[in-house]
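>> received
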Amino acid sequence: MIEEKKEVVVIGAGPAGIAAAIRARQLGLETILIESRDVLGGIPLQCIHPGFGIHYFGEDLTGGEFIQRLIDKMHGIGVNYILNAYVHSIEIDSYIEKMVNVVTPNGVHKICTKTIIYAAGARERHLFELNIFGERPDGIYTAGEAQTIMDLYGVLPGENIVVIGSGDVGLIMARRFALEGANVRAVIEIMPYPGGLMRNIVQCLRDFNIPLYLGHAVTEIIGGRRVEAVRVAKVDEDMRPIKSTEFEIPCDTIVIAAGLTPNIDLLEKIGIAIDYRTKGPIVNELFETSIPGLFVAGNALVINDLVDYAAEQGEVAAEGAKIFVENDGIPTKSWKRIEPGRNVRFAIPHYISGERDVMLYARVQKPENDVYISIANLKIKMHNVRPAEMIRVKISTKIIAESRNTVIPVEVIPHEF
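>> returned
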C-alpha cells in the first residue's frame, strides 16, 4: 500500500480536471490528478470536429487541439498524475482531513488530502432509461460509443441509421455518418423543440437534409439478430404516443443521443446533497459541495454546452481549494440562495456570498423569444432562450449587494413586463 499526502486531489483528467489541476498548481498547492483511463484528456480526444476553445483560448479548435493545449500546459508546470487509477472510495475523516482510496496496477494508494476536486464528468443516458419496447438486437449504440468507434477506430457502425434524441453529440454524429456515406434516415426527438444547440441543428441536419421529427417517440425496436426497423409515433402533450400516428423507419443501426447525467456515484455514497433539477451536487459560488473541502466542476456538476465552461469551472474550484487550504474552510459572512423562478429549470451555483463576482449558469424550461433574464436588480435583454442553450451571466458584487433579500430569484420575464 502506498500512502501519500496532498493538499488537492483532482479526480478526472478531462477538461475540467486538467484545468483545475493546472490552476491549483499555479496557486502553489500540492496537487495530484487521478484518471481511470490510460490516457489524459477525456471526451475531447474523440471529438475531431471544431467548436472548442472559442471562449477559453479565443480560437476555434477541434476537441483534440483544445485538450492537447491543456495537457501541454499541465506538463509544463509539473502537475503529478496517475493513470489507470480507479477511485474505489472517498472517506471523510474530519472537517479538514479526507482520504481518497485508489486502486492502480502498481498497488493501492491511500491519499490523505484537505481538498478534493471531483471532475469525473457525466454518463450517457442509455436505452433502458427510455421506455422503448421491442428486441435488443445488435446495432444499438449511444452517441458517445458511436463517436468513439468512428473517430478513434475508423469504423462505420452501420449504413442506415436512426438517431433517437437530438442531443449535441447525436447531431454531430449524424453529420459524421452522412460525411462517411451512411444514410441517416431520421433524428427522432420526443420534445417539441431540439435538444441540441441551434448551430448544430443547422450545420448537422439542415445542411445535410437529415429529417428531424419533433414531438415524436420511438415506441418499438424491430429486429432479430440485427436492428431492422424502428416504430415511431407522434406524442401528445403528456408525452404519450398517439397510436393512430405510428409508422416504421427501416434501419440497421440506432444511435441514442438522449442526453447526459452527472457521474456522481462516488459522491452519493458519502451523502452529498443533490439538486434534483440538475442531478448534480448543490454547490456554493466556489463549487464547494455540502461536504466542506469537496469541490465539483465540469459535467459532474452540471451538463455544459461547451467544454470552455467546464474548464472555467475547474479553475474556480481550484481557487476555492486554495481558500479552503489557507483558512481551514471557506470563510464567509452569510450565504444568499439562488432560486430558479419563472421559466428557469435550474441555476448554478445555488449559494452566493456577495464577496466576489460570480458566473451564473442556468437553463430555461421552454423556448421563449424577446425576453429579459432577471437576476436581483440585473435585467439582460435576450432575443431568445432555449432549453438546449445554457445561459451564462456574470453577476457582480454590486448587484448582489443591492439585493437585501436572502433569496435571489433568477427568472425569464417577457418583454412587455
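>> Residues 268 and 403 are 33 Å apart (CA to CA).
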